[in-house]
Amino acid sequence: MKALSTLTPAVKQYLIVTGNYWAFTLTDGALRMLVVLHFHSLGYSPLQIAALFLFYEIFGVITNLVGGYLGARMRLNRMMNIGLGMQIVALLMLTVPAVLLTVPWVMAAQALSGIAKDLNKMSAKSSIKLLVADNQQATLYKWVAILTGSKNALKGVGFFVGGALLAMWGLAGAVLAMAAVLTLIWISSLILLNKDLGKATVKPRFKDLLSKSPAINILSGARLFLFGARDVWFVVALPVYLSTVFGWSSWMVGGFLASWVIGYGIVQSIAPAITRNAVLGKKNGQIPGGREAFLWATLLAVLPAAIAIGLGTELSPQWILVGGLLIFGVLFAVNSSLHSYLIVSYAREDGVSLDVGFYYMSNAMGRLLGTLLSGWLFQAYGLQACLWVSAVFVAMAALISIALPRHTEA
Q1: What does the CA dihedral 234, 327, 246, 305 come to, rounded to 10 degrees?
Q2: Structural domains of the chain, with CATH
Q3: Above 70 in pLDDT, residue 197?
């Protein structure tokens, strides 16, 4: 308690924002695994289960665009608390009797959860910009990396938590327990979070939804292709391939992907150290910018193509795919963390949520595009086709990144 009392107000607010984000992310990951395992046990195919999350992704695109506007007008603390409250409602929607738990009802709950997730994420990422001085870019990079990486690691932990709660208490009991814990977090946030966080000095107009910053527009385009490149083979194609070709059980598939997400989050958290010490990364007295975004994306683009080629040889497909996926996770985590820092760095301090919301709208568009292509390409042409499209998407992200500004001084 004595140590907490000596913290600056900015650090205290950062801890509150991070705690909110952690709690939300844990329930988000657990909810996804609960829905997957529950409907798998009812006999739904992987493609049918993926369709349950379609509204989750679609509403993510809308929420990021409109949420940034609302965050600038209504303040970020309200957006974060609204997101927490909506997630509680989404969880409680799944406590209805089994006869009412229809596909449209679950898709509606997922839509609400998708809105809540992006309100929470947009508020958390925007808040950091306001808590770190402009001349402390190294600190900003570190804080963004910790927030982003820990979120993804906890999402992976949430996969395990969801499976465990489902086994112990069933679907209704599991979501009720999560809703109860999240309600306590929500009440604490209402009391402790700074009421003026993210308040814009000038009320934005609706036409300000679209970013006027060339750097943010370029970075948003790169982000769309980067996340499309991941989800085009990771969301549907990979789990189905592991299950049907390798014969892995649903628990093995879920456990492996959860472990991958946790490791991916850990690498994101330490990305500043990786880019600082790597040959292609940050040098003494410099912070990463467009040059580093291009170089790390170029490295990543080679990997899906190499995996696709390897799967066509006589080498063990299991070793090639699993080993390639692990390397892909490391490189993708660095790229993602670097992008997350750049958007917060480029964003205007006054009305920061507008820029961050526009950027994460592109992120959601990439995920939606990747999810749709993943099911269609895998069903029509197989996993190798998904990997080749992934390589092309990352190459596009790298080419777009050439036009980004270069940071020179820390």
Answers
A1: 70
A2: 8-401 (1.20.1250.20)
A3: no
